[in-house]
């Protein structure tokens, strides 16, 4: 897995230790003035020139007196015969056609004006013969005010990690060109990956001053792969969007907000994959049935029932038990009925409590000798506490008592580690078992956010300001981590939620701004594209986030727990929230509702699921409605890690957050965006406010719940506009509604 962290420029002003041929050739052509101008355009305060070099077509973006960028839009190692402007398609600013010995190349440029201006450059090739692809240099070069790529000074703040979003976020400080997000729309490049059997693993990155997109090509070896692009067929090989911001300075909070603004702007201008309606209520009922009835799901100890972490495998642990239980409790409140398995799981919680240490242990006292019963991952200490806090806030008195008994130990641990937790430690004396995750010395960097959320729960339950001070201390200690803040996706999401809640309580804008740092690190690990590589063609992955900072896969548990955290974040937010952030979070949650369905083995072809699981993680049973742990953007076999029963809570969370019962009515509502507020102005009318992004749309479904047919509906917006529905199923009417709209339904 190709992981790029932070790439430093040569900020001393000295010549780099090495210069690539691409840098040297571009520098010489710019110095000699041999580039031939083809067309000049403008984008806000920037001028854009399309220019012809001896082996490339260049797009040059400049701010007068503030430097610029050179992007290689077309590469012709054997030269080219003709380059001419042709009629542009609708929406395009220009289109260029180039003929070379390879074939016909087409370059299209589109300009998007706005507060965040965007430049889109699409490049395709139609080979004249079967074309085996080979090395193409990276395509982006910062320029100094003298057009010299070696004189530009700046930093790359974030670049593509593995198979995640093909983007690089950087700033040019000297001269002060500003900040740039370069984004490759990898979704549009699926035909290229398919024809060449390549993967865009770490494709967008580089070393200053040669950065950008490295077109994936087959590995060169003694006998290289022979999978050519077909002749006479146009194939897109690059679809780049560059989003610009005038500012280059600022602290990490400002850089994070800028990144989110640029990313949110790109999201508005790419073609979004479709989503489908998923019946999470049906899935929740199936999951309840399997939890209660399958001997592979639970095991008995000390007369109580405990959840297996994986199918018929692994020892019960407190994180698993509480995660499943808290999700079931949410579903019980939503469905207005108790389920026996919920009470059974709650009854055994006390056996995890160590009365001497006054904390929950990870394992039960009788855990096998193959486990170190005293070892605990830092996040395993606080995530179970957060679930106890949820239950306590909802009025569960036994959970409240257990929460109160454990909270002191949690604070003691936080202070011992000075709010910077290691990977793993001994629960008895805090002796560090594993300090860091990598050679940078970083531990579980986002645990402080989870801890802060727990402290805010304690403050809500007790009104004791000491807990508020603890939350502040934890969030403050995480400052300076920039894009390395994320350790585990759901912990980062809860850290953002803690910052938002802290801002609401303390009225200190620093915490709103710090929430953007958590979110920037979260979305840095997202895959903002839809892969069709390998088995990935059978499932959805758009906006999926890798489970860990360096994990090769997306995981269900982190997916639905982040969904729950973002619901809390959005409901605590208000009009001061950056619109791009609102859009990103709402779209993440919308796509999670669709994407998560494919973690269930019955939603995948049998041959897409690995026939072997990680040692001690049991097996995959396609008949059980429990999710696989792992899906891969690069299309590897799903479920290599196992079938996680601790992810069973997903169905309960999704159902209880997105399906809404309507009292004394023969239907329920499903919406793929959160309802922030609702009222019942009359017996046959319902109004509600959605919390999505501006200029976005949400799906609203009205679903039959009994034998009575659906009534006639009128669905209107705040302005009184009447929306037209479509019947996508016999029991369901569907509407496209404004994602940030106030909607009224009458029947």
Query: CATH topology of the largest domain, what is it called?
Result: Glycosyltransferase
Q: Share of helix among residues?
A: 25-40%
The total number of structural domains is 3
The low-confidence runs, each spanning 5 or more residues with pLDDT under 50, are 1-14
Structural class: alpha+beta
Strand order of the largest sheet: 1-11-12-13-16-9-8-7-6
Shape: globular
Main pleated-sheet profile? 9 strands, antiparallel
Q: Which CATH architecture of the largest domain is right?
A: Alpha/alpha barrel
- Mean pLDDT figure: 95
Query: What's the CATH class of the largest domain, please?
Result: Mainly Alpha
Gyration radius, rounded:
27 Å
- Beta strand %: 25-35%
Put simply, the count of helices is 15
Distance between the termini: 54 Å
Summary, kept brief:
This protein is α+β, with helices and mostly antiparallel strands and 747 residues long. It contains 15 helices and 37 strands. The chain folds into three domains: 26-249, no CATH class; 280-657, Glycosyltransferase; 662-746, Immunoglobulin-like, CATH 2.60.40.
